[in-house]
Automatic annotation (TrEMBL):
Organism: Vibrio marisflavi CECT 7928
Keyword set includes Heme: no
Span of domain Aldehyde dehydrogenase: 14-477
Enzyme Commission number(s) of this protein: 1.2.1.27
Name of the protein this chain belongs to: methylmalonate-semialdehyde dehydrogenase (CoA acylating)
Amino acid sequence: MTKSVALFIDGEFRQSDSQEWLDVTNPANNEVIAKVPCATEAEMLQAIGSASVAFRNWKEVAVPEKARLMLRYQHLLKEHHDELAKILSQETGKTTADAKGDVWRGIEVVEQAANIASNMMGEMVENVAADIDTYSMIQPLGVCCGITPFNFPAMIPLWMFPIAIASGNTFVLKPSEQVPLTAMRLAELFEQAGAPKGVLQIVHGKKEQVDFLLAHPDIKTISFVGSVPVAQYIYQQGTQNFKRVQAFAGAKNHMTIMPDANKDQVISNLVGSSVGAAGQRCMAISVAVFVGTAKEWIDDLKMEMAKIKPGKWDDDTAAYGPLISQQAKQRVLRLIQEGKDQGAICELDGSECEVAGEPNGNWVGPTIFSNVSVEMSIYQQEIFGPVLLCLEVDTLEDAIELINRNPYGNGTSIFTASGAAARKYQHEILVGQVGVNVPIPVPLPFFSFTGWRGSFYGDLHAYGKQAVRFYTETKTVTARWFDDDIPTGPNLTIQLK
């Protein structure tokens, strides 16, 4: 019997009354593994109402107790790490190794949420005027909301609700309808960790449910990760409804390869960062910019990439899994064909990829293009598949100018043996996350995930100190006490509660 995915409302896992259910499929064979409901309006109202009520008590809980909840939660996540990775693999198609990495990066953010006390500290200046002190306090906002994508069903929800809740808020999560199973297991473990009733809610659905969250007055913040058009929509609608919004969008990440770089390291890192997770990550390297004589390495790159094969999640020889859906596969195949039609040279073509025993999977093999120009659709659009574009320039300055003209600014990297070249690159590049001899420069969660330009809409980024500021408000108090009001007398005592 096909599993029916529950809602998590008011501390209970409950079956939806919805008349509209969506298929959850295994991308390796497109077999239906579960049905997920599109929550009714009544269920959405119940979730938001429960979160609003829970906030009244949760905001008053001592900060150390909130931190202890996160310590218990991260312990359970580590204990169930492999189980979570298996669930994640089956609904995303990710290989076991990739799925474990997804879960672990989420656990790292929960560990940072356990350090919430240091990030909730205000500031104080004594004697800003005669006998007057001014100090600030960090306070939660209320009910926060997260809308998460299919590609990281553990990591990205864990970017959001642990820090929001540790900061004193309550949270409504709407995970991708394509991968709801991981989120539900995260909620079960959160409940086991001792999370109070109503602090976390999970609803499911599509655009109708998202629009409801964007419009409801009790929702104070919206956190979103997804495609550029949807991120723009979320940001516009959310801010029009006077909500605080952080919307992480698409990318076109470039790796700049200098001729003095370590060739073997360059090729190894390019292969992994371009086709890992089937290219379905916003920090994937999708463009290699070869400077000067480094272009001579393209043939060697092609030979190494040709050795890479996709496969099922439990195949230890597979480098990556399938694309998430047939629709995603057809979009990637269309862009590959457009690249050929527009004059790019397809050095390695993964369009006809097959995996033994799984003829119905959403497979695309490693693909490399050379002779690419910036006018081509394969360069202008985020392909979100295992496709690498190779561009050639004469100088480092040319590479920087090329990348800075691109509308996106999520991540970039430079491979070089020159400290001077690396410093010039990191200083002048208009990209929020820069790697030096590191292909995918995603920071650990005591920093923040800082995409720029067309890759991010909002002001404050995910996790780290910026996330705490996103989920809180600052209150400033200016206080004056008069010496004449100090009580005196032989019977004066101080009582502490």
